[in-house]
Amino acid sequence: MKSDKVSIIVPVYNVEKYLDECMESILSQTYSNLEVILIDDGSTDSSGNMCDNYKALDNRIVVIHKPNGGLSSARNAGMDIATGDYLIFVDSDDIISLNMVSEMMKKADETGAQIVSSLMTEEREMLDKGQTDKVSVFDSHGALRCIFSDDTILTSASGKMYSSGLWKDIRFPTDKIFEDFATIYKVIKKASKTVAFEDWQYFYRPNPSGITGSPFYHRKMQFFDVAEDVTSGIKDTDPDLVPVIRNRITRQAISYFRDMSSSSYDDKADKKLIIKTIRKGIWKYLFSGYKAKSKMYGLMIAVSPPLARKVFAPKG
To answer: The whole model's pTM is what?
Structure first.
C-alpha cells in the first residue's frame, strides 16, 4: 500500500469541549505518515493553548494561530502550508474512524482514484459499520451527478481524501456560508476518478447553531446565489446536470418554506422568492428521485401557499 503523506487540516474555533476527542481519533490513526495542521481561528477559550500542547507532544503537528476569519479562511490557511500528497478536512468537533486514512489510502492504491469518499454519520456508534469492500467508481461526470443529487457522494468537504494537486488553484470562498457546495464540485470536476465506499468513517456532531440546525435567517438565502454560480460552472461542460441542480434548488426552497412557516421569520421578499422558485421548478421536481413527501409539500406550496403555511405552522 502507498506510504504517501496525508495532510489532515483541522480548523479550530472555541471547541475546548470536543477537541481532545477529535485529536485522539486523528493521532491514533492506523496510518501514521500524517501531517496534522491545526488552525486556531482566533479562539477565545482554551482551544489555542490546547493546539500548542498537542504540538509539543507530537512532531507531526503544525499549529497556525490567526485572527478569526471563519471556516473557509481557516481551511485555506491550512492548505497554503500543507505538504502532504493527499488532503483530508476534519472539523474540530468531529471524530474519524481509527482506520479511515488507511482505508482511504487502500482504495486510492487499488483504484488509482484522486478522491476517495466514505459515509458520514450523526450516530457515533455507526463508525466502522458498513462494507469497506463495497466500492463505487465514478468518472468526473458521474461523481458530479452524485453530489448534485445527494446520492452516494455528498457535497461536504469532510469525509473525503483528495489528491492535493486537485486543490492547486482552488480555495474555499470566505464570503459564503455554503462554502462546500460552492467549492467541492470544482475539485471533483478535475478528478478523473472518484471512488466511494459504503462504510461510516466520519462522525459529525449536529450543530444547533449551524446552517441546518438553527432557526431560519436571511443569510441562508445565499444558497440560491451559490447554486446559480454552480450552475454556471458546469452548464458548458456538463449541461445534462443542470436539471439535477435545478431539482436540488427546488428541494431547498421547499425546505426553506417549511422552516419559515414554522418559525417567526417574516421577510416578505424572501418568502415571495421562495414561492416563485418552487412554482418555477415544481413540475420537473415531481419527476425527480426525491422523496414523495417532499414532492407533496412542494405541490401544496405551489398551489396554495396560505394552506401550506397552515400545515407547517407551529401547533398549539
So the answer is: 0.93
